[in-house]
Amino acid sequence: xxxxxxxxxxxxxxxxxxxxxxxxxxxxxxxxxxxxxxxxxxxxxxxxxxxxxxxxxxxxxxxxxxxxx
Length: 69
What we know:
single chain, about 65% helix, elongated
């Protein structure tokens, strides 16, 4: 079980950890995915992380408001 951490907090931690490498996080993951494909290794986790980061970038600033009854 992962606990009570929100997805946004996990996304931020992931982004910060990868950014510590000095590269763009999505670019870094794309490079690792390409390298893994060349070696014939699985890329499912890396591709999932890419989607998480890309979704976070797309959704920034968009908030749905709840309908009030």
